[in-house]
Amino acid sequence: MAKLGKRTRALREAAAGKDNLSVEDAVALIKGNATAKFDETVEISLNLGVDPRHADQMVRGVVGLPNGTGKTVRVAVFARGAKAEEAEAAGADIVGAEDLMETIQGGTIEFDRCIATPDMMPVVGRLGKILGPRNLMPNPKVGTVTMDVAQAVTDAKGGQVQFKAEKAGVVHAGVGKASFDAAKLAENVRAFVSAVQKAKPAGAKGTYVKKISLSSTMGAGVSIDVSSAAVE
Predict the structure, then answer these.
(1) Above 60 in pLDDT, residue 7?
(2) Higher pLDDT pick, 188 / 228
């Protein structure tokens, strides 16, 4: 077994035996142990009682975090004409049509969110095998296939987070930075949990939210009391 470094041991010891904490206590612990030389991302993971392989148990959605993510989001938009101009004016980093498709097919993906107008989906559809596995495929269910591209770009850059359950029924996302005020981080955590709860699928049986964990990029994870994370 590889020998753990002093910093890793200290992080694990700080989190040891601290389970089912309140959101506020978990945030305080995470912030206090985020000692990397960069501003660590605070990440949340929810273990859900679903099997995403079944269509009626898929969990996906989008939430606008009240205090943003602290991350610079690069946005690409598939649009033509006036809609392309709207996207550029709203701050989109990349705007294009067939030319953008060819760039992506060539292996260059320099964006974190992809938005498209409905008329561009036949073009975007050819990129399904590239964008799909990266969770970048535009989807009307999360507002990334829309005629209101300006609002979609604004939302993406303003702290909107998409989520989707993985094969094991786990949903995870970044909900801020360790440098954030503790109260703002706690507010973001509750907003995210609330959005996942509202996205409960019809086919979910038994306990829906089984476990919630919080960690920083380089830190150990701690579990949060599920009832503490509920929005009051």
Answers:
(1) no
(2) 188
